[in-house]
Amino acid sequence: MNKIKPQIKDGVADTLFIPLLMRSMETQHPKAIIHDQKAVELVKRIDYDFSKYGKANFSAIGVAIRVRHFDRKVAAFISRHNKAVVVNIGCGLDTRFYRVTNKNGAVFYELDLPEVINI
Predict the structure, then answer these.
(1) pTM as predicted
(2) Which CATH number is 38's domain given?
(3) Which residue has the higher pLDDT, 10 or 25?
């Protein structure tokens, strides 16, 4: 498997790896409240030193609660609106598209800095 080598030069943009790792960690927990296999896959594929964030267990729980909340909100919106449009501004490495299972014809747009989108 080829590793993805991010070209992030901005300290703010570099923080996009934190929620990705937290979702991956939570998914692998025996009592996980979210399941984000795409996050697990991305952490394995991205050539990045995730170890600096690996001990942040409370952050993982906080991220998981926020992810579950917004996944439910997006899923509810999509269920009420056939062919909904979902716009995720500052998406980072969000994988909601893969977590929301019933898309009901929805179209997802993910917007971020070019170096983030290129990952």
Answers:
(1) 0.88
(2) 3.40.50.150
(3) 25
